Model the fold of this input.
Amino acid sequence: MLRIGLTGGLACGKSTVARRMAARGCRVIDADRVVHALYAPGQPGVDAVRALFGDDAIAADGAVDRRVVAGRVFGDADARRRLEEAIHPLVRARFRAAAGADALPRDDDRLVVDGAERIAVLEVAILFEAGFDREVATCVTVEVGDVEIQVARAVARGLAPDDARARIAAQLPSAERQRRADVTLWNDADLDALAQRTDALVTRLIG
Done:
């Protein structure tokens, strides 16, 4: 199974591309959903967070209290690094399992998978920053040429303009994502154009 890494900037259309690839038969593993699953009661992410931040970071139902964890790592680069060092290997293990399995349960939240047969796609915002690019054969980034288009799209989703700009500034620069990626999908036009570019990419990857 061909392993693909999918990333992109805020409001560039990464999740839209992921959904289109799933519709085309790719097996899409959303890293954010995997982390949510790892934070559920009884899952290994709970033990990892407890070891780092104590019982206060665990909710009454046994799940990770994401608000407490966010408060612990906000503005604390060392705490964020330690959390990432604990959680990222678990995400990698789930991706490897999903990419290598012949069949996976579609309704099992512990292994978050959509799509099927020949291409496994890891959708992750920090593909390069976290070293997930080493898990895949091809890296794809979804980009927008004008940052103001990104801001406008983020605002349409409910973010304040200043918050959108701050989040964009905190991400790996678009030029660096493009430099490190094997494929750049541009999303400056409408969704139909993005769908066509995504379909063409899947066809090329399968071929």
About this structure: The radius of gyration is 17 Å. The longest strand covers residues 2-8. Strands lie at 2-8, 27-30, 119-123, 138-143, 183-186. The CA atoms of residues 38 and 54 lie 17 Å apart.
